[in-house]
Amino acid sequence: MRVTMIGTGYVGLVSGACFSDFGHDVICVDHDRSKIESLLAGKMPIYEPGLDVLVAENVAAGRLSFTTDLAVAVAGADAVFIAVGTPSRRGDGHADLSYVYAAAEEVAAAINSYTVVVTKSTVPVGTGSEIERIMRKARPDADFDVASNPEFLREGSAIDDFKRPDRIIVGASSARASDVLRHLYRPLYLLETPVLMTERETAELIKYAANAFLATKITFINEMADICEKVGADVGQVARGIGLDGRIGKKFLHAGPGYGGSCFPKDTIALLRTAEMVGAPSSIVNAVVEANDRRKKAMAQKIIAACGGSVSGKTVAVLGLTFKPNTDDMRDAPSLDIIPELQRAGATVRVFDPEGMHEAGKLLSDLVWCDSAYETMGGAHVLAIITEWNAFRALDLKRCKQLLAQPVVVDLRNIYDPKEMAEAGFDYHSIGRPQHRL
Q1: Which residues pair with 29 in a beta bridge?
Q2: I need a labelling partner for 266 at 20 to 30 A (CA). Which of 44, 284, 337, 435 fits?
Q3: Which of the residues 18, 263, 307, 400 is marked catalytic?
Q4: Does 263 participate in catalysis according to the annotation?
Q5: Model confidence pTM above 0.85
Q6: Are residues 178 and 43 in the same domain?
Q7: Residue 45 counted as domain residue
Q8: Bridge partners, 411 (sequence order)
Q9: Distance (Å, rounded) from C-alpha 204 to C-alpha 128?
């Protein structure tokens, strides 16, 4: 089948590359000429493990191409996916759908045969209906259907998530549109991937509900971690104990500095705004958003407390800037709250991240940018681990202790064992676990 993917951001590029790897002919479109030129030159605009190889293989096979010409890309397509950004709108937190609606108008002008127009972007309930209204107003003669096909890709493992998903959600109001999407995803039927066919509104809400529930699990275990620190319990064992209950499950029960990234922060707020608009406010989701905002700011205070209550005139070594490992995504990363708070408290901050330095440089200033984990530690009074990159999981502790001015470590991801760190001579602080002292 012929597929057009509008938007070469995280969702569009990964989805387009994976569809082409299924054997479909895919054209990825973006108005950003520099981005398309980079892709044509084999340079990825985002960091995602394996994406560069997947793109190169399918470009070489003639199944994947890139263009800025939307009209050419859309003409004759069986399915056109809208995968443009839906950032939080300034002022009210609603999802900004201006890019989605602009794309819909352009698609309406370009289609010349039956086409299924699919929202891949995360959009509030009712967006599909508005897209259909916009398109039918622009082209009453056009033959098309509008469907919803939300994505559930985790940054850092997006290719595997696309090819081996937990489920496929399709919201469509016609059998014709459903058949097109079934055919597109046919390779996954061989893996017996569950495919849930729903109405558009249901599919749109499933995406927001899923992200809000996962954000709730993260926030819940973070609050349990706070209780653990007060009573001397171990949040890791608490998480394991409740996660073994099949009704709860073990995933997303890892205590840390709070959630960030491109999805959870904006999607929980957008869901709140939708709920308020329809007169069904969600107190649970509202509490999650507020607790997560407090959480990220509290982590800076945890680092300050580990330094005796003040970092004025001191140096803090920070490992990890991105919101999670295996991505260069800095959107709503906890580091964006933690580091400025440390700077306001008078600290000099030395940082290193394997992939996020370039993006972080656009958002953070007055830092000492280092070329390695060990370089950050030279003369630092505390080492803070914010992102759990694999490269930080087996540091040479003896070397770390020699480099640090004080053997203080604040591990916001619980990647080290408290007893081993105490035995190595560190004043070690983690999340929701008893502190060991020798």
Answers
A1: 6, 67
A2: 44
A3: 263
A4: yes
A5: yes
A6: yes
A7: yes
A8: 385
A9: 8
